Amino acid sequence: MSDFPFSIPRRVDAQTPPFSFKQTRDTAEFTINKWSPTNGKEVKITQLSGLLITPNSESQKVILQLHLFGEWNVNPYHCNVSFKRIVGSVQTWLDPRAESGIGDRRPCNAVFALTIKQDTTSTPETLNSTFVDEPNTTEEVTYEVYILQTYDDGAKYYLNRSVNDIDTIDHERGISTFTAECKG
User: Fold this and answer.
1) Cβ count near 75 (within 10 Å)
2) CA–CA separation, 163 vs 46, rounded Å?
3) Tens digits of residue pLDDT in 28-47
4) Which CATH number is correct for 24-183, 1.20.1070, 1.10.1760, 2.40.50, 2.60.120?
């Protein structure tokens, strides 16, 4: 019998929610052809794709955050990012392309911030986005990042650098980051 007139609760260790990230300083050049609802011309950003996370419960949400640094050789208002979730062999686009009523509209999870429209060779665009996913699983989930554009065939995106990658103060280099964290 205890000398205490009350019971002492047992210590419960808090479980840290799952967290995962990919961060890259790599520079890369991607050629992206014009996207349409029938051709699926998205291009995977391999340096940030393959982000793995395993929720602790089926009710947990996964918070995705993406910071993308780079420059398009076309005006960035034609360009965007879409996320894909993979659980086992099931692949699901997280943009609204499967929804009825989207028609020929470009699906996207995020768009690039507009900078100086006239300068598409030395002024990087950034994209910062938060997306809440509900995978409803305790299996390992893989997330991928895709870029697409609707301007013209052969547009280029330069990851973590400007189009003209000249070693001067006016041509930046950057870092891109993709994170996933379970909540709830």
Assistant:
1) 17
2) 19
3) 999 999 998 888 889 999 99
4) 2.60.120
